[in-house]
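Q: What would this chain look like folded?
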Amino acid sequence: MNNKYEEAKEILEKYNQSHIISWMEKVTEEDKDKIINQVLKFNFDELNSLYEITKKEAEIEKSNIEHIKYTDINKLDDEQFKNIKSIGEDIIKKDKYAVITMAGGQGTRLGHSGPKGTFKINIKDGEKYLFQIIVESLLKAKQKYGVVIPWYIMTSEENNAQTLNFLEDNNYFGYPKQSVKLFKQGKAPLLDTNGKLIIDTNKLIKEASDGNGSIYTSLKKDGILDDMKQKGIEWVFVGGVDNVLLKIVDPLLTGITIKEGNLIASKSVVKTNPHERVGVFCKNNGKPKVIEYTELPTSMAEEVDQNGELVYGEVNILSHLYNIKALEELSQKKLPYHIAFKKANYLNNNGEEVKVTEPNAYKFESFIFDGFAFYDNMSILRVKREEEFAPIKNAEGNDSPKTAIELYNNAK
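A: My prediction, written as structure tokens:
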């Protein structure tokens, strides 16, 4: 360990993080070794660059943003609908389709102490966990198409063990265990407002999940891409764990993507109003992009076309589809980090826990949709909000269990 310690010490001194060296002298040899390994895996040049970005206000070139084409599912005639659906069904029936559920988050905002997928809601046919609702969709597809669709779950370091234990305890809700695999998303260190690393309450350098954009590299790192290729998978659906109306096995999305000759696709719903606080699809510098509501100028948010529809009105509902080739390509790419200012409890120099009430640390996250920019085109399928979008994000108000349950009950 001495050589590794000297290497870590040199790095910390070089990047003005010497307080970590002092901290290492206060912890056990086991924790010291863990901190050294943390330091050796961090990219400090990148962290320095990210910290410098925190001092600048984000800008977006309005002139580089333009409308993105989409297909409205409700404007397809019967022949088009049947044709597109049959293309997708053929893929599913031939065992070339897989599903990924992004479930790395905790249910903290809902007052739930476990992984978000273990949150339970009381719908008209009884109490069900979010994971259970997903399994029911997979079982319906199994019955309809005669295949067992591989199910991959992206967890986090924080909730992986809990998720696995939960699924084991519930016998995977009747889904074949051998067809379910878990993998973990990545992590990144937090920095305080002075650009310093923070000591977590576990006495190690504080890290947090680095966003759902790490899915691409995690698929490769944890051997999931290899597993998919061995199974002959060609198309992979990716969605979040908290949308109770998410159609995870949809031949229409697959069919339209194949017909249009694209490698990636997403579903959208129409914005309820120009100022709804959601990300929308567009093209930026000729490439597909999701632009956040905070980045879209008011004049553009309110812009309408000749039919009176919002030019930037296609809401991202985290319902994506990828050809396996795209996932392989993206697993080799470096996505940009986005910066969030968060509250992060920490240990001070005396080892005392400091519980903060205001944001004090920068968290770095990559977003899955930033992978779209590596392609010239993608398929967008507009669907009805009341049929496919009932997320559970907040304890009360919009996108809460109450609103999701109401939408779910009305749609079923």
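The chain is about 35% helix and 20% strand.
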